[in-house]
Specification:
Elements (H helix, E strand, L loop, with lengths): L1 E5 L2 E5 L7 H8 L18 E4 L2 E4 L12 E3 L1 H4 L6 H8 L9 H14 L5 H7 L9 H15 L15 H7 L8
Parallel strand pairs: 1-5
Antiparallel strand pairs: 1-2, 3-4, 3-5
């Protein structure tokens, strides 16, 4: 039995220790935000944080993750309020959304190390493939999230799911429409 902490909760997987973490998260823990893309570590769709480091969950087994702390996109912020998530939306750096969880995880790991990365550092830290080609907007979004983390900027973003737009308009003036 492989025991680890996933999204701040202790988990025990009664699976073969050689099972890729990706499949344990998706199939056993029902954390489907972590995507299967290529299965060989090339695309980054399955990126998760393991002890704060962005790793491809298709390449690490649950046996190798034993005793470690894993954060999936669901655990990055339950209400989508993490600066990376907010900046990706604000900069319209999301199209189909398939690669977005892995990108958000990789960006969060980068910004935890350096909240003011340059374009070259972002390019090196974000190995994810995006078939929609949002790379220029992605760089802007990550730099914007860094400014938010440094408290140099705020983002008035859309409300979290489950909040009525009418209620949000009362709370967030930028969302009010002119009558």
């Amino acid at each position: 039995m492989s025991r680890l902490t996933v999204n701040e909760r202790p988990v025990a997987f009664d699976m073969d220790p050689q099972t890729p973490l990706l499949w344990a998260l998706r199939d056993a823990a029902n954390l489907t935000g972590t995507k299967y893309g290529c299965g060989v570590g090339d695309c980054g769709a399955c990126m998760v944080l393991v002890d704060g480091e962005a790793l491809r969950s298709c390449l690490i087994t649950i046996g190798e993750a034993e005793g470690r702390f894993v954060t999936t996109i669901e655990g990055l912020s339950r209400d989508r309020s993490h600066p990376v998530q907010q900046a990706l939306v604000a900069e319209q750096a999301i199209q189909c959304g398939f690669c977005t969880p892995g990108i958000a995880i990789a960006a969060a790991a980068l910004l935890a190390r350096n909240a003011d990365p340059g374009e070259e550092e972002i390019g090196q830290a974000i190995p994810n493939l995006c078939r929609c080609g949002v790379y220029p907007r992605l760089v802007r979004a990550i730099q914007r999230a860094g400014r938010v983390m440094r408290r140099a900027e705020t983002i008035s973003a859309a409300p979290a799911p489950g909040i009525s737009p009418d209620d949000a308009a009362e709370a967030v003036p930028a969302l009010r429409t002119s009558e």
